[in-house]
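To the wet lab folks,

You asked to see what we're planning to order before we commit. Fair enough. Below is the target structure as tokens, and below that is the sequence we designed to fit it. If anything looks off to you, flag it before the synthesis order goes out.
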């Protein structure tokens, strides 16, 4: 019986790590960022852009939210990191837009980014165009991108129930209002631990349910 209790305790501890901040990310600003690649060699293909970041061992996938600025492969710059769950957008590129709407824009974009965890990659381009359109209404939308934008707005109307915005980070160049459109853009990324091969929370929950079932069976036998 003690073994089952220990196993369940370990399982719950592992699941709780998903709610923890990333060590060194978001607490130490600024950090060094390098643009490593974008899919198919074309920035227009959208998510996922691949970034290297100081303090993070492996390359990470990121979504560009800045349609007008642009960078080149291999370019490095200094950036501030903002956790979307903090609701503090002082260091971001678009947080000042239309006052309180800035937070709404980032939440819509963050919700779309989080859906990449459970959406086939064939939809990624439409998802990124929807995000670009949120911050720049001049960005064209095809029906697929419009559907994602509509879905995000529907979730916003509901208040984004249960959406883990603490898992979304905004990567903003130090010169957040840089007028030079050839300089680096802003990106959104999901907690790198969720991008790894670590079991997803749903898998952990299923495993935990199985352990509880075995424990109850043992008590009844």
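Sequence we intend to order:
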């Amino acid at each position: 019986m003690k073994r089952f209790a220990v196993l369940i305790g370990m399982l719950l501890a592992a699941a709780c790590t998903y709610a923890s901040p990333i060590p060194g990310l978001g607490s130490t600003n600024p950090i060094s960022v390098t643009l490593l690649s974008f899919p198919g060699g074309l920035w227009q293909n959208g998510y996922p852009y691949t970034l290297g970041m100081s303090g993070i061992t492996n390359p990470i996938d990121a979504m560009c939210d800045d349609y007008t600025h642009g960078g080149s492969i291999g370019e490095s710059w200094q950036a501030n990191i903002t956790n979307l769950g903090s609701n503090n957008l002082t260091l971001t590129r678009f947080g000042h837009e239309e006052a309180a709407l800035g937070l709404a824009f980032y939440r819509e974009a963050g919700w779309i980014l989080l859906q990449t965890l459970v959406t086939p990659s064939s939809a990624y381009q439409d998802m990124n165009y929807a995000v670009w359109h949120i911050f720049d209404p001049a960005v064209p939308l095809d029906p697929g991108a419009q559907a994602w934008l509509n879905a995000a707005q529907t979730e916003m109307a509901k208040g984004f129930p249960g959406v883990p915005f603490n898992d979304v980070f905004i990567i903003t160049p130090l010169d957040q209002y840089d007028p030079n459109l050839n300089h680096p853009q802003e990106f959104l990324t999901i907690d790198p631990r969720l991008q790894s091969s670590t079991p997803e929370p749903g898998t952990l929950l299923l495993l935990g349910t199985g352990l509880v079932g075995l424990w109850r069976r043992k008590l009844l036998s």
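Structural context that might help your review: The chain has two domains: 1-22+197-221, 23-190. Residues 23-190 form one domain.

Thanks,
Computational group
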